[in-house]
Amino acid sequence: MATTKWSIDPTHSEIGFKVKHMMFTNVSGKFGTYDATITTEGNDFENAAIEFSADIASVDTANADRDGHLRSADFFDAESNPKLTFKASSFKKIDDGDYEIVGDLTIKGVSKEVKFPVEFSGIMTDPWGNTKVGLSIEGKINRKDWGLNWNSALETGGVLVGEEVRLNIELQFAKQA
């Protein structure tokens, strides 16, 4: 069977995250510049090869000072580590529409295996005749696992920035000719 390449449609995708601030509210952010590809056998997504990268310089939390701090050596160290990457080692169907993705997430030069549930929307054709597929990924990581350790203690106890990062990723891919 022929392999099929799928490229990300950045107009209809979003790479989002949330982190607790002062232990009681969430600060949301996203990456504005990223790339992802999927390679499948025909239109079968089981065992698809999936790769993703995001430009650290494109991190956006709607606050320029905070974004600059995130790009600094305190967090992502964008100068030395300009991209975060993910390469799937497994993409398997759990049941209709539900998949599980496993792979290596590399941030700041540190690679760790992660596992996330994936909602697979199925394959559809848009009004212009393009074959599309959608994936929704939600999961959690601990930022300290990748050396993103900066924090500040609060006078009232606790810390300024939570360790848990919640991911909210919406991906739309277009089948390549």
From TrEMBL:
Q: Which SUPFAM superfamilies match?
A: YceI-like (SSF101874)
Q: Which InterPro entries match?
A: Lipid/polyisoprenoid-bd_YceI, TTHA0802/YceI-like_sf
Database matches in Pfam families: YceI (PF04264)
> Per its UniProt record, what Gene3D superfamilies does this chain match?
Lipid/polyisoprenoid-binding, YceI-like
The Lipid/polyisoprenoid-binding YceI-like domain covers which part of the protein?
Answer: 5-174
Q: Which PANTHER family match?
A: PROTEIN YCEI
In Swiss-Prot or TrEMBL terms, this protein is called Lipid/polyisoprenoid-binding YceI-like domain-containing protein
